[in-house]
Amino acid sequence: MTQSLAAATSDEAEPGHIGHRQRQRDRFMTGGAYALPDYELLELLLFAAIPRKDVKPLAKQLIRRFKDFAGVISASPAALGAEDLSDNSIATLKLVQAGALRLGGSMYSTGRSCRPGRR
Prior knowledge:
- By secondary structure, this protein is mainly alpha-helical.
- The chain contains 7 helices and no strands.
- The chain has one domain.
- The protein is 64% helix and 0% strand.
- Mean pLDDT is 82; it is low at 1-13.
């Protein structure tokens, strides 16, 4: 891949977006889930599913449609598909829901807290 093509397909393509994805990841890794508003947390997920596109407008659209992060994650695959999400994007979001359900069940059965540093 040529250098100009590589730049055009990453978040480095436009000066205003230089390093945006890395800044999002850094804020999340430093501050945790509550350091980001719902649409930015959703953006982080969509980065993985849609690596070469600005996903901020899509994240905001999904939050408007489904009200919050939990609403997006728990929406049916059909409802997500109606928002023009690819099968890969839908699977990524549903994987998070499945992980959350499994984590919640595990935490409940063991009596552990979901909050970091708490038992």
